[in-house]
């Protein structure tokens, strides 16, 4: 098997689930008969009550779990046929914002955000430029050299978001990315996701926030008791192309 398997297959959805089920150990299925696809450049909300299976669904997409039945394809490639040793090469194309942040506590804000670029072998001069700009965008310039253990929950969340988007992933998965920030900052951070989406990244945002769901009006994938349905957009139903540019959004 060669690494060429991880190239995007032409015209293929970024994510495809076919009849997917997931159970933990001998327990009942937490996901049942999941069928959907995410097209390149799309942006969706993933909604559902606590315990509906949103985090479990995301975990299948970033390869933290494998389905107990059904088929999952990422970038057109079948996950079930991929050897474990090759999974890190797929993960590098996926940005993830975790609910529990998963930051490296012994590193600074800057070094946490820079980590994906360093793993990818980007020159340090480029790293300093891009990381500095992004940290400024998320409002953490004053904390750029601070250890993340000294940051508040909302500040840690912004570091986690910056780290997830710094290398412009092909797929961005965000699990309650605005749960620890106020409504105005939440909107600002969603504009960051929209900008990334305009550059071609496929984005899926799991959220309970009704204000965000109504304000941004993305189409929704909705989980209820482990089953997935497609729901129409709420609120303004605007296309991402109609949202503000970075310069405009700085005034949000």
Folded structure, characterized:
This protein has helices at residues 54-61, 87-91, 109-119, 124-137, 153-165, 183-198, 210-216, 246-249; strands spanning 15-23, 29-38, 43-47, 69-74, 77-78, 94-97, 171-175, 202-206, 219-224, 227-231. It is of the alpha/beta class and 252 residues long. The protein has two domains: 11-93 and 169-249, P-loop containing nucleotide triphosphate hydrolases (Rossmann fold, 3-Layer(aba) Sandwich); 104-160, no CATH class. The strands form two sheets. It has a six-stranded mixed β-sheet with strand order 6-7-8-3-9-10, sandwiched between helices. Strand 7, helix 6 (183-198) and strand 8 form a beta-alpha-beta unit. The longest helix is centred in the C-terminal third of the chain and has 16 residues, at 183-198. The relative contact order is 0.17. Mean pLDDT is 88; it is low at 1-5 and 237-252.
């Amino acid at each position: 098997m060669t690494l060429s398997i991880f190239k995007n297959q032409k015209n293929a959805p970024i994510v495809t689930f076919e009849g997917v089920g997931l159970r933990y150990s001998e327990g009942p299925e937490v996901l049942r008969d999941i069928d959907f696809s995410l097209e390149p450049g799309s942006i969706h909300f993933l909604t559902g009550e606590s315990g509906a299976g949103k985090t479990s669904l995301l975990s299948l997409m970033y390869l933290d779990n494998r389905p107990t039945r059904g088929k999952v394809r990422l970038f057109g490639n079948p996950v079930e046929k991929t050897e474990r040793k090759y999974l890190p090469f797929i993960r590098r194309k996926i940005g993830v914002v975790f609910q529990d942040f998963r930051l490296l506590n012994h590193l600074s804000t800057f070094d946490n955000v820079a980590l994906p670029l360093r793993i990818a072998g980007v020159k340090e001069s480029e790293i300093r430029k891009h990381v500095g700009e992004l940290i400024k965008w998320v409002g953490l310039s004053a904390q750029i050299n601070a250890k993340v253990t000294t940051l508040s929950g909302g500040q840690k969340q912004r570091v986690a978001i910056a780290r997830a988007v710094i290398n412009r992933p092909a797929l961005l998965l965000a699990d309650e990315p605005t749960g620890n920030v106020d409504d105005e900052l939440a909107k600002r951070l969603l504009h960051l996701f929209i900008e990334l989406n305009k550059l071609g990244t496929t984005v899926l945002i799991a959220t309970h926030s009704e204000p965000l769901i109504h304000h941004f009006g993305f189409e929704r994938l909705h989980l209820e008791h482990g089953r997935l349905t497609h729901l129409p957009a709420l609120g303004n139903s605007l296309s991402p192309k109609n949202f503000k540019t970075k310069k405009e959004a700085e005034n949000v």
